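During the reporting period the student researcher (J.K.) took over the structure-prediction task from the postdoctoral fellow and processed the backlog of single-chain submissions. One of the processed entries is reproduced below for the supervisory committee.
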Amino acid sequence: MDSTNTHPISYRLCYYNLCDMHLHAGLEDLKKILTDLSLWNLLQELENLHESYHLLLDYFKDGIKDNQRYEMHEKFICNALSLLDRAFYQYQINQNKFTYANQCRACKQRSFNLKQALNTISNIERQNLFDSIVSEQHNSSKELEETCEEIFNQIWTDDDWNNEKNTILKKFLTLKSSDTNIKLHIISAVMLSGIYFFSEEKIILLAELCKSDNPKIRARALCGYILNLLIHYRRLHLYKKIHYTIEEISTLPKIKEDLDFLQILFINYTGIYEMSKFFSHLYDSTLKNILSKNISLSQIEGILSDDEDNSLDDPDIEEVVKDFKKNTQEIMDMNNEGYDINYLSFSNMKSFPFFKKVSNWFLPFSPYHTTVSDIINTHDNPELKSIKNYPLCDSDKYSLCFMLASINNSNLNIFEKMAVENSMPEEHMLARNNDKHECIKDYLMDCVRYLFVKCAPEELFTDLNIDMLLFRNPFLQSLFMDKDKLVKYAYQTQRFKRYKEAVDIFDFIDKHYTLDLESLKLYAYNLEKLGKHEEAILNLEKASIIEPHSRWTLKHLGLCYLKCNNHIKALPIYQQLSSIYPNDKTIALRYGNCLEIEKKYNKALKEYYRANYIAPDDPQPIICIARCKFLNNEAAEANKFFSKVELSKMGNQELIFAGHAAWITGDIIQATKLYRLSSSDSFQFSNNDIELLKNYNINENDIVLMEDLINNKTDFKFNTNDSDLQL
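J.K. obtained the following C-alpha cells:
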C-alpha cells in the first residue's frame, strides 16, 4: 500500500467537512484518501454509503418531510467518519516514524485475547504470588508486568473496539478483588486509545468509571473522559449516547466538584510556557551565576537554610543566593496554588529508555517495579524508597529514580537528602493518595507530560489544540453555568496574567449574567492589556456609572480615551485626576498632552513644568516642554530645551521636532544630523511636518533641498590648505 500521496492535513480537511455536516464534500475527500491508500474494501463500503446518501437526497428533493431523514443524515456522517478513522489508522500502520504506528504494527502481529489476558492476571492474584505491580509486600512479578504491558499496548492501539470488550473490561475494573493499580493502568490505556482512535464505547466506559468511589479510579476516568471530549469536540454532536453520559454525570455533585477543580488545573496549564520562561530566567539570572563560581550544592543548601556558619566570603554571591531563595519561595507558593512547577524540569527528564515504552508513561509508581528495584538495590540505599512518598506524579517519580542512578556519587548524598526531606510521612502520603483532588492533579500531570512531550501532533487524527476553558465546550457548558465559579476562573487567569483567557471568561459571563463592579474593572483591564481599548472603554464607562469617583476607573478610562485618540473625552478626566494626584508625573504629562492637542499650549506647558518639577531627572517632561514651545512659535526656546536631552533618550518623532527647532534657529548642520538619526531609510517630511515648517516661513523649495541634503549621506568639505575638493 502506498500512502505517499496522503498527508495528515488531508484527513483533517475531510474530518472538518464531515463534522460540519458537509457530507458530499467529505465523501469526495474520503474517496481520494482511500484511493491513495489502495483500501479497496473500504472503497466498496464508501460506494455503498454514497449510493444510500444519493437516495436520501432524491427523497429530500421530492419535498417529502420526514424527521427521520435528519437521523439518517447523521448516521451517514458517522459511518463516513468511521471509514475515515480506519483509513487514518491504516495510514499510521504504513508509517515508520511514529511510536503509535510501530506499536500498532507490532500488536497486529501478535495474537491476543483480552478476556484470557485478564484471567491470567486474576489467576496470579488468586495464587497469591504477587499482589500487584506496586505491591509493598512482595517482589515484583515479571510475568505480571509483561502481561499488564501487553494488555495496555493491545488496548491503546485497538481499532476494532466493541461492546463485548467494554463489558469484559467493565467487569474486571469493577471487581473489588482486583488490584487497583492494574486497573489504573488499564484505564489509562482506554483513555489513550480513545484519543488516538475515536470510539463511542470507550468514552461511555470512561463515563461509567467516573462514578467510582475510588478516588484514583475516578481521577483517571474523569481526566480521560474530559480529554476525549475536548479532543473530539467537533464530532460529539453526532453521538447521542455520549450526550446521555454527560447528562447523567451532571447530576452527580461529586463530579461537578471534581470538574470545578479540573477547570482550575486546566487554567493553570494555559500559563505553562510563561512559567517556563520564568524558570529559565531564574536559572540564567541567578543559579547559573552561582554555579559558575564553583559553589557546591551543599554550600547553596547551607545559605538557603539561613545558617550563619555557612555564609560565603563573597557578599555579592551571597546576595544572589538569597535572591534565588526568594524566587524559589515564590515557586513553592505557585505549587501550593496548584501550578505544575515540575513540568519544565521533569519534561526534560523523559529521555531515559524506560519512557520509550508508552505504557510506562502511565504506570503507577512502585519501588518494587523491576527497573526501579534494580536502581535501589544498586545504590544499596533503602532511603530511596522514600521517593514513593514524594508529592510528584508517577512518571516524575520514575524520572527522579533514573536521575539519581545517573548522577555522580559526589552529588548523590545531597539529592538523597533532599528526597528524604521532601518526602511525606507514610500516614500523610496515605491521606494524600486518597484525596480526590490530589489524585486528579497528579494524573493530569502524567497526561500533560505524555501529550506535550512524547506525543507527536502528526500521530493524532485531530489537532492537539485543547481549549483549556471547559465551559466553552458546548457539551460541558451546562456543568459550569455558575456565575461565582466563572468569576473565580477569571481571577485565576488574571493571577497568571493570562489576559486573553480572562477576557474570554468575562465575555462569557457578560453574555449570561450581569457583571459586578470589580468584574467590570478586571474585564476592562484585561481588554486594555490586549490593546482592545474601545471595548475596555465600554466596561469602564459602566463601572464609572456604578462608582463615579473611582480613581482607578478614571485613570484607566482616561488612558483608553488617549489610546483611541479621543482627547476631547480624555481632557476632563485628566483635569479631574490632576487635582486628585497633583504629584503624579504621568498624569501631569497626559493632561498636558490633551491640552497640547487642543492647542492650549500655555496650559499644557504648566502641566509639563509641573511634571519636570516632580521628576527633574526624567527627560520626558523636558522633551514635552520643548515640543510644546515649538508648537507655540517659540523655536529658540524649544531648541534650548531639546539641547538639554541626550539624543539616545529621544524617539524618532522627538528627533524630528528637535531637527525642526535647530533648523528654524539657523543650525542646519545640527538639524541634518537630527533628521538622519530619526530614520534609517530614505527620509521624507510628513504632511504635518511640512505644515509646521511652513508656519515658520520655510518655503517648499527649501524643504525639498533639506530632504536631499539629509538623504545625501556623504558630506563635502573643503581643505583650507588645499584647493582640492575632498570627500
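The committee noted the following: The beta strands are 717-718, 725-726.
J.K. will present the remaining backlog at the next meeting.
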